[in-house]
Amino acid sequence: MDDFNLHYRFLNWRRRIREIREVRAVRHQERYKRILVDGDILSYHGNSDEVGCYVAPHPLTRESNYFEVCIVDTGVRGTIAVGLVPQYYKLDHQPGWLPHSVAYHADDGKLFNGNGMGQQFGPKCFTGDRIGCGVQAESFDRGMATVFFTRNGKEVGSVVMAMSPDGLFPAVGMHSLGEEVRIDLQAEWGLDDDDSVMMVDSHEDEWGRLHDVKVCGTLLEYVGKGKSIMDVGLAQARHPLSTRSHYFEVEIVDPGEKCYIALGLARKDYPKNRHPGWSRGSVAYHAADSDDCIDAAEVKYKQRRVRNIMYFNDEDEEDEEDMEQDYDGKKVTVFFTRNGKIIGRKEAPVPSGGFYPTIGMLSNGEKVKVDLHPLSG
To answer: Fewer CB near the last or first residue (10 Å), C or N of the chain?
Structure first.
C-alpha cells in the first residue's frame, strides 16, 4: 500500500512538472489572430470585417525597452496600430482599445489609451514609415510606465499608464486587406544625438543611389509609375564589390504586376532609368515571364521554376546618358545563383571604380529583400 501511494505521488509530481513546463512554454510564445507571420513580416490575413492582432512573446524590459515596426504596405485602409498590451490581450481588438493597453494608430495619427476614443497625437503614417514604441527605463522601478512613441526615428510624444503585473508586450493590430509590416523587437533607442536614427535605419546608408525605390530595413519597394520602359526604379549600393565582400543576394518578396526585377552589377554612374544589363558597364540577371512571378499571397510559400535571362552590355550605344567609360584592364567572372546553386557565369571587364551591386524594378507592387553581406557565397 505504501509503495502504491509512493508511486501515485510520483506520477502526480511528474504530471505537475509537465503542466508547469507547458504553461511556461505558452507564456513564451507569440500570440496572433488573423495575422500571417513570416519571420519578421506580419501581414493581415482576415476579411476586413474583423481585427487581426499580434502580441510578441516577451514584454519590454529595462534591457530591451523599445521596438519598431516598419510599414511595408498600408493595404486598403492603412488601419495599422503599434503599441503595448497585457500578455493575454484579446486578439480581436486593436491595441489601445481595451484597458491597460496603448497604441499609436497609423491611419489617423491618433493615440488610443485603454478605450475606443482616440485623441490626436501625431502625423498619419504611410508605406515606408517606421513607428517605434518604448518604455522609459526608470519606469521599471515603479508601478507607472512612461510610454513613448517615435516616427522615423523622431519622438512623437509620450503617455503615462499603469504597468501590468506581467509587463507590457509589443503588439501590432491590422484591419484591412493588404496591410503588411516588418517588426524589429531588437531595435535600439536613446543613443546620443542623431545616432539613434542611424541605429534603427542603418540599412538605408548601404545605398548610394535610390531612384523610384523606397528602402525599409532590408526591403526595397518599387514606387515608380511602371507605365513605360523609362520608368525603371534603380537602387545601387554605396560600395562596390571587393575581395572581402564579393557576393550579395536578393529575395523576391512580391513580384508585383510583371516581375520586371533585375539584379546585377553596374558602374557607379550607371543611368538611373535603365535596367542593369541594358547599358554599357553592366551585367545582370533578369526574372521575367515566369511561373515564379505569382501573386503576393503565394510568393512566400511557393518556389517555382523561373526562366531567367542574363544581360551583359559592354558595347558603345547611341544613348546620351551613356558616358565614355574607362576600364582598368581587369576582367572578372561574374556568377549568379538561384536558391544557393550557380546558374550562370559571365566574364566582364571591370569599370573604373569597380562594380556596384545594382537592383532594377519596373512594375507596380514589386518588393525584394536584399542582403549585401550574406554569410554564403
So the answer is: N
Parse the chain into domains and list their residue ranges.
31-200, 204-371
Whether domain 204-371 has CATH 2.40.50.140: the reply is: no
Q: Give the residue-averaged pLDDT of 214-242.
A: 89
Task: Tell me, letter by letter, the H, E, C secondary structure of the chain.
Answer: CHHHHHHHHHHHHHHHHHHHHHHHHHHCCCEEECEEEECCEEEECCCCCCCEEEECCCCCCCCCCEEEEEEEEECCCCCCEEEEECCCCCCCCCCCCCCCCEEEECCCCEEEECCCCCEECCCCCCCCCEEEEEECHHHHHCCEEEEEEEECCEEEEEEEEECCCCCCEEEEEECCCCEEEEEECCCCCCCCCCHHHHHHCHHHHHEEEEECEEEECCEEEECCCCCCCCCCEEEEECCCCCCCCCCCEEEEEEECCCCCEEEEEECCCCCCCCCCCCCCCEEEEEECCCCCCCCHHHHCCCCCCCCEEEEEECCCCCCCCCCCCCEEEEEEEEEEEECCEEEEEEEEEEECCCCEEEEEECCCCEEEEEECCCCCC
Between these two residues, 121 and 322, which has the higher pLDDT value? 121
Distance in angstroms (rounded) separating the CA atoms of residues 61 and 40: 20
Superfamily of domain 31-200: SPRY domain (2.60.120.920)
